[in-house]
Batch of 2 targets.
Target 1
Amino acid sequence: MIATTAALCAINGCGKPRHQRRRYCGSHAMRAYRYGDPNARKPQPRRDLIGQVFGLLTVLETDGYHWRCKCECGAIATIPTGNLNRGQTTCGNRTTHRREATVGYYQAHKRLTVDRGPASAHACVDCGQPAQHWSYSNASPDELTDVTGLRYSLNQDDYQPRCAPCHSIHDGKTTRAA
């Protein structure tokens, strides 16, 4: 049995096997075909984006493939060129951006969990036991009522962590609008 060794690409240091009957590997053969030189690199047209504004983002500087941008919320974000070209317009902080001004009861409680963490990470304000729920104070001047009559507020300072028994005692029958 005769051992056959694959012929290697003619480019020094490449080390890949030749592509079919050519002198070069597939990559170098394609470069020779496209650009007339097997060592050619595809020219990368670059737009200078520094100073341009994309939605809420202002481009500050580049590191080659990413752009350092300042968002109107004050955050600095590093964003790939492709994302800016595809329409990314914010730093990506969902708690700051993409929030509607008014939301329903359950979304208001979801925001509490996102912004302040789960109630279980806090102690009950009444008894000191581990909390289980975010409890509305029932005293906000900007109180809202959902379609089922549940009262809530968009101000997160109107909520306190409570354990289930203390939450029941605190709310009594006051969670539904009269």
Target 2
Amino acid sequence: MHTIHPIIQGLKGGLIVSAQAYPGEPMRTPDTMARVALAAQQGGAVAIRCQGLADIAAIKGQVDVPVIGLWKEGHEGVYITPTLRHARCCIAAGCDIVAIDATRRPRPDGRTYAQTVAALHEEGAIVMADCGSLADAEQAALAGSDILSTTLSGYTGEREKTDGPDFELLKDMVREFSDFPVICEGRIHTPDQLAQVMECGAWAGVVGTAITHPTTITSWFAARTPQGSAQ
């Protein structure tokens, strides 16, 4: 039986908000992301997912809910917390849970996914496995990951990118790995979609863009105006 950490128990049935901004964007400062995270907590988020060491530290200093930290480096292949070093740095910055790429692709430091998880568990870390397929989830489960997530579905070439959440993968993961908390992340854009995710058996749902990325949200609305549709 897979043991579920008390921090993860506290996420069950809740909304996790991803507060991330990228270089060149107007909100790309740790202080801004910390304020966004605090606003999300006040709105009912049970945890915050964030990217980058400065953001992790700033957000951890503002919120009372668990922080899921990651470090993106690069844009192709394994770039979400790609190495053991990246994961350790996220933990040192203050995250409660570290999210790492759990795909079967080669890792930059030459370690296997299982070796990375084993090293992190020896140091007392809680690991969230960002998966892109059912086979990834199987690898993550065998490695003893603490959380399985659909984060990378549609981004690794194994599965088609769906318009909304990958409900099929979510259902398959919930069915195949019933002992594990399975979190749905990726393209949850409406409250109704989040409700559907919960109905499919997700432990929790992660919403990012639709809550914390005003540039994209604005573009959705602008596209429905006469000016936007004419472009």
